[in-house]
Structure prediction request, 73 residues.
Amino acid sequence: MDENELSRVVIGLAIEVHNALGPGLLESAHKECLFYKIAKAGFFVEKEKVMPLIFEEVKLECGYRIDILVEKN
Prediction:
């Protein structure tokens, strides 16, 4: 599955979650439900994944956090 196909699947799952929950809930509730749906669909998924920030010779281990990472490749 290429990036475009994977994106279509994940966006479709996100729309399912949004339609089921509706607007107004906290982002964290939507994120947990989306994480569940992606994992249930059989994909490798991680949440709150640390992504280091590298600037010249400085490496900050917690430069960023990825909300949801799907299929590491």
The chain has two helices and two strands. Residues 38 and 45 are 7 Å apart (CA to CA).
